[in-house]
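During the reporting period the student researcher (J.K.) took over the structure-prediction task from the postdoctoral fellow and processed the backlog of single-chain submissions. One of the processed entries is reproduced below for the supervisory committee.
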Amino acid sequence: MDIVSYVALAALIAAALYIAIPALSGSPWWPAPKREVIKLLRMAELRKDEKLYDLGCGDGRALIAAAREFGARGVGVEIDPLKAAIARFFVKSAGLSDRIEIIRASVMDVPLHDADVVFLYLSHQLIDRMKEKFLTELKPEARIASYGFMVRGLPLYKTADGLKGFVYKMSLGRNLDRYT
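J.K. obtained the following structure tokens:
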């Protein structure tokens, strides 16, 4: 085998892992458009120096937008080692390593007690599993900004025509007997 064949084989293996790892962990990767991310963070009323957790952060685009556009601090949680490395690269390239941390872990294993806003672009199945975590760990003033999928069972705070985004305020979801 020549060097070109080895490079082609390595690229093929990397591409297969890039697709297989997220699919096996429950959420394939489809990045949200940057404009939509900014609109959703604006709807979530993200403010300067608030802490944003991006669960399943992918390439880190929501974290970078939050730091640049809103002055927020961020924590990205990504289970896929390749995407976590890519997110770290983009954060460092943007000069935001002092404001954004990327953690390689399952979203279920990371405590959310100090989150002001949680950003999600995850499957319904994973969001459904996380609802109890949100109710027990998030502070009352925390907001959830979910792109693409609703957090079923929580009362909706805001949505907008033409935007696949939903915002929830935890203070509205504390009395859940009316919603479940």
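The committee noted the following: The beta strands are 51-55, 73-78, 100-104, 117-120, 143-147, 158-159, 165-169.
J.K. will present the remaining backlog at the next meeting.
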